[in-house]
Every structure is written in structure tokens, then in C-alpha cells.
Amino acid sequence: MKCEKESERGVVVMKNTRKAAAVWLAMSLAISTAFGNTAWGEIRPDTGNNRCVHVHTAECYKDADETATPSQIGKEPTECTHICSVESGCIRDTEKENNENTDTLDTVASNTGKNDSKKEQAGEKAADRKDSSGNADENKNLNDVPIQNGAALSVSTPSNAEDTTTTGGTVTPVSQMKILSWSWFDPEENLLDGRLELTGITEEAQPSFTEIIEYLPTAIIARVEEGEEKNLLITNWSCPEYVQDEEGRWPLEGTYEFKAELPGGYELAEGVDALVVEVSVVGDQAAVTAETPLMTVVKDGTEKSIYWRENNYSVSDNELANMGIRLSYANECHYLTLKNVNMNSLYLGNWSNWVITLEGTNTLDVTTLRANGSYALMITEGTTVTIKGNGTLNARGRNTGSGINLGGTLIIESGTINASASKSLGEEDDGKTSGILIGSTGTLLVKGGDITASGTKAGGKIRYGMYVKGRFSMTGGEMKVIGNDCQGLYTSGYFELSGGDMAVSSEAGLLGFVANGNSTVINAPGTLTVDILDIAPGKTVTVKENATLTVDGVKLEKGSTLINNGNLTVNREVDDRDGGTLENNGTISGNGRIPDSAKQEPTKIADFEENIRDVYSENTSINVQKLANIQKPAKAGNLQYELVEYTGSESKGEGTIDESTGLLMVKKAGVFKIKVKTLASGIYQEGTPVEITLTVDKADFPNTWTVNVDAVSGVYNGTEGYPAATITSTRIPKDAEYKYQLAATSKSSNLPDQWQSECPKIVNVNESGQYVFVKVITDNYKSKVFCSNNTTHITQRSFTESVEVAIDSSVYNNKPQNPKIKVLENWKGTLGSELTEGIDYEISFWKKENNNQSVTKLEDAGTYIVYLLGKGNYDGSLKTAAFTINKCKLKAQITGDSYDKVYDGTTDIAEEQRLAIQLCDDNNNDTPALQDVHADQVKWAYQSADVGEHDIDATIISLAGDQAKNYELTEQTISQKGTIKPRDFASMTVSADPLTYNGTEQQPKINASVETGLENVSPDAVFTYSKDGVDYQSEIPGFTEAGTYLVYVKASMANFNDETKTVAVTVQKAAAPTVSAMSESYSYKETGERQVALPGFPENCGTIGSITAQIISDEGQILDSAAVDGMNLVLRLKGSSKNMVGKTAQVVVKVETKNYEDIQIPVIVTLTADSSDSNSNNNSGNNSGNNGSNNGNSNGSSSSDGDSSDYDDPNESSVKVTPDPSNKVTKDSQKGYRNVEQGVITGTANQTVNDGYSHWMKDAKGWWLRFSDGTWPMADRTGAYHWEHINGKWWAFNETGYAKTGWLRDEDYGGWFYMDLEHGMQTGWVLLDGAWYYFNPSSDGKRGIMYAGQRTPDGYYVDKNGVWDGRSKQ
Q1: Which H or E element spans position 183?
Q2: Fewest CB within 10 angstroms: 508, 641, 730, 1303, which?
């Protein structure tokens, strides 16, 4: 018959032992070359972040089959419509993968173990790495772009693919972290002891740099600082020695070190091995031409290869029989029968089809070999094997091989298969073997039979029960996958269970089933039982409708999903804490726990009794579940019972209920409200609660319970009274409630429903003769009434002996009083309750103390006696008590118009103060009427007669009035603060004797006196003196210069106000000193002005006033006029006649001075003959020394500079220069003496005399100028200044009249000035605060203004602030 094929089988690379690695490589290259592909062309290179994952099918070649035929391999498809995109997986979303790959690496590393770094065998590299389309295994990290010496390789994508790849993710710099140790992450097991061996390399099949990187690890498992373990991606591989020669050929042989690079932020700690893989390239031309065996058998350690040559086997049937096998060929299929075979291993390959029939027990066991063993059953890529029969096959692999290793397709239809992998003999261990290993190109299809796949951990290495890299499918039979101390089942390919029963377990409590493949699906009627199912990050496991998955637990990794559309049984927990999802559209059962979002709604509680009733029974619980007929729903959590608040009108019951059993222990009978619901479980949500109303009725009152009631009998005991009865009980519970009632009858049937909660109190005598009833009430039993056998009995108490009477005293209030009488119980040694008038006693009569007569009104002050008579609960005996009305206490206060008086030398009050005494009640401040009471005699006095605040004492001698006997004072003497104010003097007289100037300071005699105006107080004033009215001294001030001065005189005396008066002190001018007469002589022919220097004046004459000249006589008619210019006498000669020679003119010069009377200087002018007359009369000898000396000077002009020495010699022949007549001293009616050069001429400072001068004055605010008429200069507005020329200096006065000093800005002149305290306005260079300033010295309308930002006339520069910059002049 024709051998069966699997339609989905892929093209795989043949695998054998390590010796076959060279053969495998050579064949791979040879086949690629034969089919027109480039050497190593089937290895899919990285193209940046893109790589085409499309597998050509027959449709791409117009073929009806689903896969390409061998004849089509290597040809360009003509009908392929595939376009590379992100959705197809050809162009990758790197940003998303960067986030996912790290999680995937972490998960895979944790599931497969840290040390799984050795490959299964050299020949398995390609089979584990490539499928028929060249796609890499899913475990390979695709993020890394192969780099050749730092440069990215560029490999083109299909011509019709549009590259939309964008760079994703962000590189975040981290600090350098030390790597303490590491191992390769090599899930595809390409490395052997950290080395990569490539053999069978030929010139036609040379591996490129990029193709070698395809077989190198993508990451390392690193232990970093603090012991943390991380999976770190390799970012680049480099090997400077592995390069192409000049002809573009890669090396054929040699050993090369490929160095890995890590992401930034990590570095190897000192002493840690470098990240280097040694790649061995071995050329073997013979391997290319070597014949490939069809089957290889190892028995007793001896290997036998069988070839298919020209439709015949290379061995005879006898040789096969010796091996225990039968072999035949028909319909393109090899038929192999195994009957009780016992050998080491079986290899089937060469792209062949097989049917194996099992008979008896057959064993393939490599564990018995002393040499390093491998797989037990090996089916290579492209080979399809079907197993049938009723026999058994035991396949035992170890170390670097599995029990069954599939690179091709295995179909199991029947038989018993036991595949295992374990380590033995202590040889080298790959650590990644499995009971059944399905390579990336392999397929296992189970249709029937009984299969067991097991792995055993040994020496720290992990073996899986079954490892699926390719495809697994099951439609029937039974299969057990067992991990002994290791994981049971690991998938990174495709898994589909559509029938039969599969059980997966890990006996070490590890993960039974790690689903890390592209697809994991359970279809009906398939049944999968797993202890722990681990779904890797981003992966999905689907349970289809009517399919069954039973798990102890499920671990959902980040982004993973378990979709249940069928039947899911969970016995422990579905763990979604890492971010996975359980989507439930089917049925979930079991005793485990699933996420809340997937829990199922439970079945509701139904068919129960809502209202139930029972009778209380002591120490017995009520079974609510049974009474209400409550049944737990099948699909729900456990029942829970809970007491809730009853809000009805009936008595509410009390008790506790067992939440799980519903047993109610009643503490108090009544109505209970009970809520019943099904609890949330691991599978079901919390159910909808139902409510049940339970009424627990009270039981009958027990006959054994008794109560004895004895009614009270005794003497009246006051308000305290007696309990109505004494109660004794037998067997009544302590928490029983007693209620009471009194009645005149002993029949309980006639009692009203008016029970009291406490035993009634019997107080009064009239309450005797009543029966006492007691009603006993309990929570759980009906009530019962008991009655006393006797009635209550109370007798009267003695009033005289049993009470105390107290009456509080009162105060007279001018009204009749009715005092409060307190009668208190007093038979217990202490005072008790107060008795009530009219009930317990009554008032018989009142009488005044010490008076036998009764009184009817209690009004005046005094003591009264009351007589009381007992009644009611007391007998009729008497009791007395005293009541006192005290005198009303009055307090006094002083009133009047004023408590102040002016000093009069006594302590008496003044009549005008109108002081009086006001009386008022000390308690309420009411004032009694004057006719009832008032102060009769009062003594008044200040405590002191001197000025100041003193108490005014008022001593009340006695009271008077109609009711004075009922009043008394709180105190006899009272005080009020008062003040004695100082008195003004009645008069003050001040006078001063005049003085006459004598050149020295003189003190005037001042006569001062005062009058007190009081006969009893003599004047004793002290006088002080002041010039300015501010500073006073005991001495009289002195004066030197003549003038009139104002002196302030102050009189001071105790108890009197100070008084000040002013007196004018006059220093009269002294008599004028005698001055010798001046004489001048002029020729009768002379005309014009002549200046004569006036003599000097005495130094102590004071200020010079006006100087005038007056012609007294002129008999020689010599003068036209006489005047004074400065200190010069100016005579204007008018010329005369010769006959007047010898005649004279008399001029008097009058000089006004401060300290002297006017000084008069007589000047005699004599007319002489002219010199020309002497020449003509031969008189040349008289004036020979002056001949011709005055020629041309008759016009009177002079060159004098103003020095008076020019006028000493009247015969001086030099030219006289007449001073400016406008500079003479004049007297202004306002400003006094002044002239052009000096301006205002001032007299002595701080003088107020009217001496014709202005005076500088100083007060507390500063200096100001007092003109001679008493006015002063001041600006007309704020911010402006009034300028005045005084004594040759300019001064500025502000709006208040005070002289301004310091810096000054006058907006009217538009500049800054500086006013010196002593010299007024400054000009020229001035040094101020260490800086030089220049002020305009010119009289050009801007005199005194500061220069700023310019050069001064003498060549120095000042800045914008007026400060000299310190540089030399220019």
C-alpha cells in the first residue's frame, strides 16, 4: 500500500550524531546549491527590524496542493500575492516587542532553567532553528540587527513589500551595574560548552558573518549586584578576523572569537569571563559527496547504517533478522516491524516514509552505553513515520539526546509508547533533553494508543516530559506527560488537542504545562488534565466548546489569556496577579479559585418557608435550615446564615446563629429575621440572599418557681418611706423582671394594667391597709402574679421630738415680712426632708421676744418667736423657733458739683463745690426717703492743704429721720478723690533800671514782686530770667552794646502757677568821643571833586550807621557841595576869586554809631592862592616842588583805587579816582542800613532793639533774618526760595522764613546751589564729603549754580552729578 503522509509536514535538515554535523552542513549547502539558492540561502537574514515570514505554498506556483513540491523549491513563485507588513509579521513593531521580549526572556528562562545552554548535538542546529520556510524558532529574540565590525548588514526585502518600520522605544540611560556572573541564553542549544562548531564547509557553501550570528545567543542570564537576576539582550556581535577576502569568499576553516556587546548601563565585574563565543569552521569537501544513510541502528554500542540503493537495502534480510527487525518497501514506503527488539537507538531519515509495526516489547535504550549517549529514536526532517500494532516501544534517551527526537513527522495510531530521558553514567550533560522532543520542523500526531513521555531532573539539569518546538496534534488515544523533578510539557510551537485524553504533571510541584507556543487549542471531545498550567507572557490557551480542561492551578503571566468556551475544572487557583486574563464563556467547576471577573453567577435558593414558628426550649437550639426547608443549590457556594435587624412591632428576639449550620441558640424569645445566602467561592459569585421570619414563642411559667410577698409595717419614716413589701423567691432567674401594684383588694383578677417597674414606696400614714401584688416576667417564659397575705401599716411620729425648725434672719425693708419657715426631719441624727405647712404642721401664733404679747405684723428690726403645731403624719405636739429682722445697712457716698478746688491754704471744702452725703441700701443700692433716714451731722476735710490729688474725708456724726432706729451705717467715714489746683498770683510787678554803654557787659537791676491774694499765705516767689523765653536762669542776663533788650522774668512759688512778664532793658548810648577838626586847603582856581579820607573811629563804637556831611559855613564860596562816600569826604570845589584867598568854609561830618551818640567831625576848608599867581608874581620859590604837577587835572578825575591814603597830603598831585557814589550806606525803611556791595547790613545777632539794623535771629527751628521794621524775608510758596544779599553774601529763605543750608535746588533758576551755614551761597571750587564741586562764580544771572556734565572755566571736567572726575585739567 502507499505510505501515508502528513499534509503539513515541513522540509527539515537531516540530523544525526555529532559526527554527522559535517554531513548535515554539507548537504544543506549542496541542496541549496542544487535548487538554485545561494549558499546558506535558506537562513533568513535580519533586514533591519524586518524579515519576511511568508512560506511559499503550491498556490504561489499554481499548484493544487497546499505545499510546494520539491521540484518548485528554489524557483521564484509566479502567483505569490504576499505583501510584507506589520500585520503579517514581516515588519516588526519594535516598540511593542522591546517591552514584550524582556518579559518573554524572563519567563522562558524561569521555565527552562538558568543552565540550559548546551545544544542537543551538533547536527540539530539547523533542525531546531529553521523550518521549511527559513523562519526562526519562536524563542529566538529578533530585536538584534546583525553587525559586521560595527556596520549593520543590509539585506533586501521582497520587491513588493512596503517597509513601514519605525523606530520605537526610548533609550533611558542607567548607571553602570556590575555583572557578577552570567550564562548564555541559548534555548535552541546551538552552543556546545560555549562553542559553535560548523563543519563540512565548502567553497560552494560558505557561512557569512550574518548567517553565523543567526546561530549565536540573543541574550545572557546575568546575576547583578545585590543578587538580582536579569535577562540582558545582546545588542551586537563583532569579530574583526571573520571577513571576506578580496574575491568575496568567507573563511573555510579556522577558529574565531565572536564578542558580544550588552546594553548601556552594564559592565562585567573584575574577574568575570568575557562574553565570547568560539566559532570553529571546518572544511570537509568529502561530506558533500558522502552518501546519506536511510536508517542507522546502534545495538550493543555498535552502529550500523542501512542505505537505500537502487530500490534495495544495503543489508540482507538475515542481517536485519539478527537485529530483530523486518524491513520491506512498497508504494514508496518503508515498512519496519519491531518484535521484542532490544537495541540502543534507531535513526530514520533521508526524506523517507515509514510504517512501524510494534509486536511484543521493544526497547531503544542509550542509557546502557558506556560512551556518551544521545537519542533513542531519531526521525529527521522530511521523514514521516507511522506507528501501529499492539506492542510496546520503550525509548530511553539520556544526556544530550531525547527518548524520541522528531525533526520529521511521527503518527501514532496504536500501541504503547514509553519515551523518557534521564542522565546516567556521569558523562557530559546537555540538560535540555526530553522524553519526546518535537523539533521546530517536527510534528507529532496522536490518533490512538497509550503514550507516556517523561523526563527526569538530574545533576541540576532540566528534562521535559515533552518539549514541543514544532507541532503537536492529538485526536484519540491516551497520553501521559510526566516531569519527574522537572516540568512536564513545554511548548514553543503549535499544540492542538482534538480528541483522546491527555494528562500532564510535574511531580516536583513545578509547572506541569508551560504554554509558550504560537497556538495552544483544546477542541472537543479532547480532555486535558494538568496539575499546573503556565501561560507565558502574551500567549493564549483556548478551550473550545464542549472540550474539557482540568487543572490544579493556572498561572497567567503578563498579557497572557486563557479562553474557556468549554468545560474548565479548577481545583486550586487561577493566578492572574501578574497581569494575565481569564475569559470565560463556558462552564467552570471545581474547588479552586478563579479571578473575580470570571466567576459565575450561582443558582438561587428556592422552595423554602419564609415564615416559621417554634416554642422556646431551654438549652436547645432551633434548626432553621430544617424548619424552613432550605436546600443548598448545586451550582453555588456554601450557605451562610445571618441574623439581621427585625423592625416589626412584635417583641424582637435575641440569640446567636451558626453561620454555616443555621442552628439558632435563643437567648430571648421573640421574632427573628434571618438572612440566608450562598457565599462567594473560588468559582461562583455571592448569591442573592433570602429572608426568613422566625417567631419563637415563650414557654409556660414553671411550677417550681415561687415568690413570697410580705407587706410593710412600721412608724412614719419621712419621705424615705418603706418598700411596700419584702420579696423572697425560689428558682426565679436572676435576670427576671419584677413589676408591682397596690390595691385594696386581694383579688388579682380585678387589677388594672398599671404595673410599676419598681417596688412602690409607702410613706404616709394614710397609705396603710393595701395589698401588694408582684408580677414576674422573663424573656422566655409566660408571666405570673403573686399577692401578699397582709396589708401595709404606718403609725404617726412625735412632732416635738422628731423635727428641727430653722428660720433665716431678714433685713428691715420698711414693709411687713412673712419669713420662710423650714421644718426638717430630725430623728436620724442628721436633718432630713422638709415638712409641708398645712399637711405636716400649722402656725399657731407669733410674739415679740421678751414680750408676752402676740404680734400680727413683723416689720421693725428685732427678734420674734413662732409657735408650730404638728399634724398628719405627726402628733399634735408644739415646737417653737426665733426669727430676727436686722437693721438695714446703709452705705454713704459723696456727691456734689465738683471735687476740685483752687488752692486757698486750708483743707476746708469750698461752698461752691456743693458737696453732700447720699445714703443707699447696701444690698440693692436703693435710696431711702429723707424723712425716713438721712445724715444729721458731717465733718468735711481734704487730707492735705497743698496742690495735688487728695482724698476728701466725710465723717458722719449721726443719722436722723422717722425710721432711723431701723438703719445703721456700714462705715462712719467715707472718702472721695479730689484735686487742689494751683492758684494764680493776684498780681506781678516787674521793672528795670536803664544802663549806659561803657564797653563792658552790664547786668541791669530788675525789680520783681508778686501778691498771693490770700491773707494766710505770704508771697515767697523765686524769680528766674531769660533772653528768649525758653532757657531761664537764676542770674539776670548781661548786655554790652547799646540798645533796647527784652528780658523774660518768671515767678515761681509752691501751690501757684508760674507767671512770666517781660521788661525792656535799655543800654543807652555813651556820649560821643571828641574828634579833632580836619583842615583842607585848595587854590581858589581849583574846581571839581576832592576826596578826603575820614579818620578812623573807635573800635567799640559798634555798628556804623549813616555818615553825612553838612556845610555849616562858606564865606569863601569854595564849595558847591559836601558828601560822604564810604570813608571818604567828597568836596565839590566850585572855584572862587583871588580876592577870597584866606577865606574858609566849615563842613561838619556826622557819624551815627551803635554805642555812641552821633560823632561830629569838623572840617575846615581854606582857600589859597593859585601857583600860577606866584609864577607871574615871581613867587617861584614858594611852590618850586609842585611846579606843573597838576597840569591837566583840573577836571577832577582820579585814578585812585579807593585807598584813603591817597588823601593824606592835600597837596598830592596824583590823580584822584572817585568811588561809585551808588555804594554809599543808606537806610531802608524796611531793611535798615544797606549798600550796593554788602546788601543788608546786620547788627548784633538775636537783638530785638530798633537800632536801624536788621538782625540774625535763632530759635529752635533755625536761623532767620529780622528786618529793622520787625518783618522777615520768606518765599511765596512751598518749594520756592527768597534770595537776600546780606553782609556781602547771598542767602536763601524758604516758605517758613528760615535760612536754607546744605544742598538746594531752585527751579526758578534751574540749578543746584550749596548754602554754607556760616558763609551762605558758595562759589568756585568747594570740597564736600570728600568730593570737589564747582559753583559758578560769575555774576551772569547764574551765579552760584553747580556745574554738571561739562568742563569748568579752569579746564577740569565734572560728571553729571557735578563731581570732579579726578583727572588733570585740559
Answers
A1: strand 177-185
A2: 730
Q: What cell numbers appear for 238 in the block?
A: 563583532
Q: Name, in order, each residue with C-beta under 8 angstroms of 1005's C-beta and a sequence gap of 6 or more.
A: 992, 993, 1036
Whole-number Å distance between alpha carbons of 722 and 796: 14
Residue 225 per-residue DSSP state: G
| Local structure of 33: helix, strand or coil | helix
> What is the residue whose three cell numbers read 400614714?
765
Question: Chain-centre distance of CA 1134, in angstroms?
Answer: 109
Grid coordinates belonging to 947: 496742690
pLDDT (mean) for 77-91: 57
Q: How far apart are CA 831 and CA 375, in angstroms?
A: 116
Contacts of 174 (CB under 8 A, 6+ apart): 264, 265
What's the rounded mean pLDDT across residues 151-167? 35
Q: What contacts 24+ positions apart, CB below 8 Å, involve 663-667?
A: 663/621, 663/622, 663/623, 663/624, 664/621, 664/622, 664/623, 664/624, 664/694, 665/621, 666/616, 666/621, 666/622, 666/696, 666/780, 667/779
Name residue 775's amino acid.
K
3-state secondary structure (DSSP) of residue 652: strand
Cα 287 from chain centroid (whole Å):
77
Amino acid found at 103: D
Partners of residue 368 on adjacent β-strands: none
pLDDT category at 393 given cuts 50, 70, 90 is very high
Q: How is residue 1203 written as a grid cell?
A: 585807598
Q: Which residue reads 570553529 in cell numbers? A: 280
User: Residue 1177 in 3-state DSSP?
Assistant: coil
Average pLDDT of the segment spanning 1157-1162 = 88
Query: Which residues fall within 8 angstroms of residue 1298, CB to CB, at 6 or more apart?
Result: 1261, 1262, 1263, 1264
Q: Which of 688, 763, 677, 676 lies closest to 722 in space, CA to CA?
A: 763
Q: All 3 cell numbers of residue 1003?
A: 547786668
The answer to whether residues 357 and 336 touch, using CB atoms and an 8 Å cutoff, is: yes
Instruction: Provide the greatest CA pair distance for the chain.
Output: 205
Q: What is the pLDDT of residues 956-1012, one digit of tens each?
A: 888 998 888 889 898 989 999 999 999 999 999 999 999 999 989 999 999 999 999
CB-based burial label for 1287 (10 Å; 0-12, 13-18, 19+) = middle
Model pTM greater than 0.70? no
Query: Which letter does DSSP use for residue 382 in this model?
Result: T
What CA–CA distance (Å, rounded) separates 499 from 513? 18
Query: Residues near 454 by Cβ (< 8 Å), separated by ≥ 6?
Result: 418, 419, 420, 421, 435, 465, 480, 481, 482, 483, 484
Distance CA 347, CA 404 (A): 10
Q: Residue 825: what residue type?
A: E
Closest CA to 1314 of 1330, 1341, 1295, 1333: 1333
Alpha helices (runs of H) in 1102-1253, residue ranges in sequence order: 1171-1176
| Letter string b/e over residues 527-545, b meaning 16 or more CB atoms within 10 A of that residue's CB | bbbbbbbbbbbbbbbbbbe
User: Would you give the distance in Å from CA 463 to the centre of its chain?
Assistant: 57
C-alpha cell at 381: 526532517
Which of 851, 931, 932, 850 is CA-nearest to residue 888?
932
Kindly report the average pLDDT of the chain as a whole number. 81
Closest CA to 903 of 1054, 1058, 1060: 1054
What is the helix (H) or strand (E) element at residue 841, kind and residue range? Answer: strand 841-848
Under 8 Å CB-to-CB from 166, ≥6 apart: which residues? 94
Secondary structure (DSSP) of 42-63: TSPPPBTTB-------GGGGT-
Cell of 1004: 541791669
Per-residue model confidence as pLDDT tens digits over 26-75 = 333 333 333 333 333 333 333 343 445 454 555 555 544 444 443 343 44
**Beta strands 1262-1266; 1255-1259: pairing state:** antiparallel
